[in-house]
Amino acid sequence: MAGKTSNDELSLDLFIVLARAYNSVVAHSIRDIQSHGLNSTEFGVLDLLYHKGPQPLQKIGEKVLISSGNITYVADKLQKKNLLVRKASPDDRRVIFADLTDEGRAFFQSIFPQHQQVLVRAVEDLDSEEKMQAIQLLRKLGLSAERKFKESGAI
């Protein structure tokens, strides 16, 4: 990076470093998730239901960033594994909620602490102050990029 002084070059370098760092940290997460017989989407759904409680299927798709068709497929897979159950809303029968089964709750409770430690180890070379700085800078970058994307009419 020495000698790269133009803002354009620094922006490209930032993008490359950010992408590589993201891929490296996510590789730790994916390997751990797969060791439990899940894919990242299934883990995300279980994580959401474990930490937030029952959710409408449509909202799950929005929160874990998958399409409504894909959430049906993922819910089917988790239901076959007896980790998830669907329940009709008492207020609106058109709305279907997903919730963890007792087995699903116990399963996630047993794997989450290990997963958390995998993520802790993946970023442990940053001290607390560096982690706080990274969080602040990445949040600022993400919000700015999102705002500019919307302003460009791309959404």
Automatic annotation (TrEMBL):
Pfam families: MarR. This is MarR family transcriptional regulator. GO terms for biological process: response to stress. One of its GO terms (molecular function) is DNA-binding transcription factor activity. PROSITE patterns: HTH_MARR_2 (PS50995). It comes from Paenibacillus rhizosphaerae. Keywords: DNA-binding, Transcription, Transcription regulation. Residues 7-143 form the HTH marR-type domain. It comes from the Bacteria.
